[in-house]
Amino acid sequence: MQAVSRKTLCLHSLVFFLVFSPSKQTPEEGSYCGKIKIRQPFSLSNPNSSFANIITCRSEKLYFRTSIGAFHVSSIDYTTKTLTISHSSCSSSRNFISPSLLSSGFPPPPQPNSVLLFSCSKTNHTNTIGARVCTRSPSCGSPASSCLVVDEIGSGEVGFHPKDLGCTNYWRVHKYSSGEKVKSGTRVSFDIPDHLPDVCSECKKPNGNCGVGLRCLCHAKECKDKVINVGAKSQAAFGSMQVLLLVLFLVS
What we know:
The protein has 252 residues and is an alpha+beta fold. The protein has one domain (32-251). 17% of the residues lie in helices and 26% in strands. It is built from 5 helices and 15 strands. Strands 7, 8, 9, 10, 11, 12, 14 and 15 form an 8-stranded antiparallel sheet that branches. A 5-stranded antiparallel sheet has the order 3-4-5-6-13. Strand 3 and strand 4 form a beta hairpin. The radius of gyration is 23 Å and the shape is globular. The relative contact order is 0.19.
């Protein structure tokens, strides 16, 4: 009888330890895709998370899912609540994807997204889209390549295309300070606290502010998982691209 009591006491002690002992690490706290930490509002395992269906991890690479395909994510900043969609330099304008197409419907990021345009033949039309000349920039194809920058690409510029200025190549970038310094990639804000129904209502309107990312977030069945490789350098960039720091000196 005494032996049974001891066994019962040990069993109770074990149950108490398993139930009430503090966990050193929850699954979400220890969740990574490559070197990118995954935490709320994102999740790789909880389908009920607000942004669960908008990211996916493949071969230790994180992707931003949209209604036209998946784009490589180079980083997530949980302080500014933004993720950065990477982009290789000097992509062909034939494969142009506007930053506004990716970010439309989400809150604007802390600093605007921009586009660098190269080898443009119709520079006399720059004022119509607010393009400015870069006096110092990365070359694209040759040292003599011309460069233009279109600032603050937002929902109003969805229809803009580099071919409008006869540009052969482009690069999606974003500002990261109050000056003219930019980094490679497009930033998408996920600062949407418990207002998904309101945001998703834009996707129901004929001309609503609903980009391909928001459409995937609001309508999971429309998400596409085919990886979008923009330009010949994109595949290599997905595996080894480092975020580049550019300094532009712009002529107003």
